[in-house]
């Protein structure tokens, strides 16, 4: 007998599901009526109750962050007072003395509460023997409503009002990358700096600003979910230093080859545009342009990271082609399978440099903006960036062309070559426009 499964998600558009524990309200006997109500139709699974088999009912919510803020006090009473200030449910309302006064109640006899300042936050103060300090222990039940850095700063403010200082904080368990990037960018913006810096620097700023290393080392590779689960073996080339990459390229191995080098050249080109934007953002007298320069630098980092990914992906694509050619061909079935694998792998090996071309071309718009509007003292850097981007496009085009010769699907080849030809022409036109601006400014 098939047992039905129902999945419910927490969602801001369904307030009645704010606490998924209410799924259990009414228990098994009441579920047959609940499931047919419009607000309790499952997100997954048919709204049909099977009284004979029972059911599996699952409630799913977004990531909960367990977050503690360290205080320069041992007083649990002080810590609890701060926790009550910030947590969503706040504290019980009392007459007179806020601790020992008579509890105020509503008409039904329920205690009245003074809400705290942070939504989607549960908090309590406690003393940690191991570290000999008091902490505000929080659960951020929806980090999109109250972020880690917002919770940190609000606790700082409330602690200061009570004569207490925050000395650092800790994240219990793991945390999504987005949380750390938002925190790092927040603190960079407070410093009047561009947020368009490498991801590693943004994470470093977040760790330092939140004091995440105070009690124990915060190692991003182990504590950030995306870093912990990514497959490092697919990122071998971009983990090399400059000499190692050059040495690997010069070895007798056919990969990395021209495609990977094209991607890396493109990454260097847009990296120069990011540099010009960041220098301009930090230049005295350019305060009114910091937001625009910061946004440009941030987008440049996106293109740079994409092109760096293609460094390894081009080599991976080449290796897939070699793997396909090594498949057995002892009979007609094996030959057919091998030929199909070769065609699919070769198409992918053609698609990767096309993506490199598209990304490098897109990056030229930012390079052009920096040549026009960036710090004049760095205009030559924008020029070099344009040369790198155009080189990346033309170099990747060679890889598109050479792979086209091995593909039998002529419609696919024609479409891919038409895409590449348009990109190549636009890139060469862009290069000339940018260099004209650069040479005019250089004089």
Properties at a glance:
single chain, 443 residues, alpha+beta, 3 domains
Explain what this protein looks like in three dimensions.
The structure is a single chain. With 443 residues, the chain is α+β, with helices and mostly antiparallel strands. The protein has three domains: 5-60, no CATH class; 65-228, Alpha-Beta Plaits, CATH 3.30.70; 231-442, Four Helix Bundle (Hemerythrin (Met), subunit A) (Up-down Bundle). Helix content is 53%, strand content 10%. The chain has helices spanning 27-34, 76-86, 148-161, 177-190, 199-210, 220-223, 225-229, 242-249, 258-281, 290-325, 332-373, 379-404, 410-442; strands at residues 5-9, 56-60, 65-71, 91-92, 113-114, 121-128, 133-140, 166-172. A four-stranded antiparallel beta sheet has the order 6-7-3-8. A two-stranded parallel ribbon has the order 1-2. It has a two-stranded antiparallel ribbon with strand order 4-5. Helix 4 packs across helix 5, helix 9 (258-281) packs antiparallel against helix 10 and helix 10 (290-325) packs antiparallel against helix 11 (332-373). It is globular. The termini are far apart.
């Amino acid at each position: 007998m098939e047992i039905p499964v129902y999945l419910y998600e927490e969602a801001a558009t369904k307030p009645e599901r704010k606490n998924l524990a209410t799924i259990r309200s009414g228990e098994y006997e009441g579920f047959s009526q609940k499931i047919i109500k419009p607000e309790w139709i499952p997100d997954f699974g048919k709204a049909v109750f099977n009284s004979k088999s029972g059911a599996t009912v699952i409630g799913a919510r977004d990531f909960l962050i367990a977050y503690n803020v360290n205080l320069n006090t041992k007083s649990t009473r002080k810590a609890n007072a701060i926790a009550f200030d910030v947590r969503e449910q706040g504290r019980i309302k009392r007459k007179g003395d806020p601790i020992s006064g008579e509890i105020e109640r509503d008409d039904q006899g329920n205690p009245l509460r003074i809400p705290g300042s942070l939504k989607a936050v549960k908090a309590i103060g406690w003393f940690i023997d191991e570290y000999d300090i008091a902490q505000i222990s929080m659960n951020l039940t929806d980090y999109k409503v109250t972020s880690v850095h917002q919770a940190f700063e609000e606790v700082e403010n409330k602690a200061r009002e009570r004569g207490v200082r925050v000395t650092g904080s800790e994240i219990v368990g793991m945390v999504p990358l987005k949380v750390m990037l938002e925190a790092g960018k927040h603190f960079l913006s407070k410093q009047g700096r561009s947020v368009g810096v490498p991801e590693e620097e943004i994470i470093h700023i977040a760790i330092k600003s939140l004091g995440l290393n105070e009690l124990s080392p915060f190692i991003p590779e182990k504590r950030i979910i995306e870093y912990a689960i990514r497959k490092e073996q697919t990122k071998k080339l971009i983990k090399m230093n400059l000499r190692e990459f050059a040495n690997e390229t010069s070895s007798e191995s056919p990969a990395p080859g021209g495609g990977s080098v094209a991607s890396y050249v493109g990454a260097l080109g847009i990296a120069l545009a990011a540099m010009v934007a960041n220098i301009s953002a930090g230049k005295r007298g350019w305060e009114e342009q910091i937001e625009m320069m910061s946004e440009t630098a941030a987008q440049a980092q996106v293109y740079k990271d994409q092109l760096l990914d293609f460094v390894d992906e081009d080599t991976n694509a080449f290796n897939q082609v070699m793997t396909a050619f090594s498949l057995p061909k002892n009979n007609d079935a094996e030959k057919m399978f091998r030929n199909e694998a070769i065609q699919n792998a070769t198409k992918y090996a053609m698609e990767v440099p096309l993506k490199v071309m598209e990304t490098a071309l897109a990056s030229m718009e930012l390079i052009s903006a920096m040549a026009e509007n960036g710090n004049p003292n760095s205009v030559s850097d924008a020029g070099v960036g344009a040369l790198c981007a155009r080189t990346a496009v033309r170099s990747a085009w060679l890889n598109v062309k050479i792979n086209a010769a091995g593909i039998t699907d002529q419609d696919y080849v024609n479409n891919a070559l038409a895409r590449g030809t348009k990109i190549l022409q636009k890139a060469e036109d862009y290069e000339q426009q940018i260099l004209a601006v650069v040479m005019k400014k250089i004089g």
